[in-house]
Amino acid sequence: MNKPLNITQKPKLTKKGQETRSRIIVAAAELMYEQGVARTTIEDVQHKANISSSQMYHYFKEKKELVLEVISYQTSKVIGNHRRYLSDLDSFEALNAWRDFIVDIQIKRNCEGGCPLGSLASELVEINTEAHQEIMSSFFEWEDSIRKGLRYMLNRGELNSNADPDKLALALLAALQGGLLLTQVRRDPEPIIIALDTMIEHINSFKKI
Amino acid sequence: MNKPLNITQKPKLTKKGQETRSRIIVAAAELMYEQGVARTTIEDVQHKANISSSQMYHYFKEKKELVLEVISYQTSKVIGNHRRYLSDLDSFEALNAWRDFIVDIQIKRNCEGGCPLGSLASELVEINTEAHQEIMSSFFEWEDSIRKGLRYMLNRGELNSNADPDKLALALLAALQGGLLLTQVRRDPEPIIIALDTMIEHINSFKKI
DNA sequence: CGAAATTTGGAGTGAATATTCCAAAAAATG
DNA sequence: CATTTTTTGGAATATTCACTCCAAATTTCG
């Protein structure tokens, strides 16, 4: 009598095990955000997470697998934060609160690091197929939550029917990404401020009455 | 009697030497564009450029020095191409020709690779100080050539006095960068098209009469 | 409690990769 | 043409880094 076959037989994780695992992911995410994936060695992560190499490979098959977890971690962190602002975007004040949230983060970090998802995207898209897929999904999800916010504004009657939430959402996300990159390069909040304000000004041209 | 001191005593380069040197830079630029700087090994470049390792280190002190040359090469290539469109931006048709130029490139490359400067920026800004400085200058120069184009439109009377070429140039460059990143991630020209068209539509709101 | 499973420590391995070195070929120079 | 300079070939080195292995400690669970 055999036990039921389980293809993806993952070893069970103790509470302690789960803590160690997520400590590794968080440490890796921070390092990879600060210095990129390629520059971040397994040893770096080991030191930051206070673990030995056996632990590293006990929880992750290889570096690539850790990278996928980092992508997922950053995705939920970034999108979760933004959704707080986007889920009830009921006015231009709310839109500007979202803008302020983004700008404030950059100022707090001295304009270092750029977007946690954008930098992973740029580094991984061409060289890691699985990472590429994950990142693409993340961006679709992000775009979608912006679109929903704009649709909500439209339904609330804040925007007139000339406003196209699909196009505006994509253009906003692009402005956001480009603005963050330029802010990172310049070490100056101006680009992200102007990129977002210009797009918001454009959206304002669809304001009802 | 001493020869005059020359701190940065560079060995003279024969015509043949210059050819080899630039062959190395071009090969490195292509590889680094396709797979990133970190992923591109010196050996990769040697094969692509058909040279031996002694030649590599005869022309460049170390990989970092080659990277700086690649940045400079990509800068002149990208900005040179764009300047052809931006230097006499005399109408909205000219603005749209620039847009088409950018979009067509992406389509031709199957939306792979993103922006040659943007990807270098994202990979290097946080980990290579000298590269950071070069890239920052490149972006300032690029922004400046966009600004000059818009000023030209303003002076020609295409735009009214509410148009701020400084802000619009920065916002356009941000939209361009973000649009290229999303197009690269999605492998779809839509993001760059919508990002640019939305900004151009916004600029259109400053059209005179 | 006691067997089984999980977690951890840390040394060790092998491949990838940047860089060096020496000597020969080719080109420039006077 | 002889000498100096530049260019090239290719082997050798040294270091970084992902990943493996084995045994011990700890935890889980019947």
From TrEMBL, chains A, B:
Portion annotated as DNA-binding = 41-60
Output the Gene Ontology terms for molecular function: DNA binding
The reply on keyword Lyase is no
Q: Name one Pfam family in it.
A: TetR_C_13
Matching entries from SUPFAM superfamilies are given as: Homeodomain-like, Tetracyclin repressor-like, C-terminal domain
- What InterPro entries would the database entry show? Homeodomain-like_sf, HTH_TetR, Tet_transcr_reg_TetR-rel_C_sf, TetR_C
Q: Which PANTHER family match?
A: HTH-TYPE TRANSCRIPTIONAL REGULATOR LMRA, TRANSCRIPTIONAL REGULATORY PROTEIN
- Any idea what this protein is called? TetR family transcriptional regulator
Q: Which organism is it from?
A: Cytobacillus oceanisediminis
